[in-house]
Amino acid sequence: MANRPMLEIVSLEKRFGPNTILKKIDLKVAEGELVFVIGPSGSGKSTMLRCCNRLEEPTSGDIIVDGRNIMAGTRRDLDRMRLQIGMVFQGFHLYPHMTVLKNVTLAQRKALKRTKAEADARAIDMLEQVGMAHKADAYPGELSGGQQQRVAIARSLALDPKVMLFDEPTSALDPELVGSVLKVMKDLKSKGMTMVVVSHEMGFARETADRVVFMDGGVVVEQGTPDEIFGAPKAERTRAFLSRVSG
Amino acid sequence: MDRFLQTFFNPVVMAQYTPDIIAGVWVTLQIAAAVIVAGILGGLALACLRSYRIRALNFFIICYADIFRALPPLVVILILYFGFPSIGIQLSGPMVLFIVLAATLAAFAEEIFWAGFSSVEKGQWEAGIATGLGFTRTLAYVALPQAVRLAIPPLVNRVLAITKMTALGSAIGVSEILSSATTAQSFSGSATPLTMSVVAYLVIFLPMVVVARWLESRTAWKKR
Question: Residue B218 above 80 pLDDT?
């Protein structure tokens, strides 16, 4: 695996009023690496992810994507760099007034300025990759949660991002639909996508993650390979958390 | 019974004043159309501006919306028509009627569209912004279509309520339906022209009421 860092989080701090949510977080994600972030609710893991494309504005620190600092530059630069950072939400957030195809082509047309033909072709490719091409003309309201999430993944992928952020992508899904989304994420990993995943799917982490990061109280407590973290956690807090979730 | 018919449905009077009433219908339609277009677009523009959350600007938008929703349009019409010439601003009757009704509709429409924007999920904005659309394009392509759908039923009702107020033009001599009818009534000494105005208003506004009802019964879009 290449060692070039694709995403670097440098002493990232986030405060909401008197509360410090993230305390000087440092994290490097190499090209093609899948970093899996776990931790109790309120540990700051989602906030960290949302700071990576400035949906949440960091209080201080730097976010460097493929060598470029997204904290520097103009608003317009930021929007351009956001195209390189795919984001998948817990709640899917597909546009309900557009067909699946339109959902996947909108940002391609309006932000990347692709022609309709280019955008449509790319959208169909991506929808095929997530197994949703047959629903291109359906509206989001006609799809199951798992299907909606796969379309949301395709919508991000169509913009050719350099890194994909997953914010609890399966937490809103019925258990029987989780597998289809995880499979798409696994395919993506095998194609070499750089991914940061915040999730509670420990089985998936064990199987697919290159590295597991445990966060608590706004800091990275411990990180290592899945075997290290799940098999022999060093920190007491990690052990406590893992025994709670597996318990 | 004969006297009732003679008063309200006198055929001679009807024949004589039908052209006047039709001319009034035409004036009402023109002003109403202009008010609808200007009021809705104005309200939509204000609601869009408000979504940028620029504090000073929003203060003015909210003041405007609240004041024009609070004031009876007739008061503003009278001030503009009878008061403004004294300070050198001379506006024609139809122009005053148009300005005041459009401004009133814009104030209500702004609030209705704003309610629509407010009920668009935060996640929709985040999805647009995360895909590099930026605020303005997310507003235009993601939030606006959803806000407009939500706004249509209450908006149609408000449009109806305000376009009916074209009848206030009779207070400043705009020859719309009611004005034509009352003029005809004083010349003929018969209430029949007023009956004719009722028919004219029903012909114009009843279809709008039916459309409003239909829009209200229709669900916004396919259920999730």
Answer: no
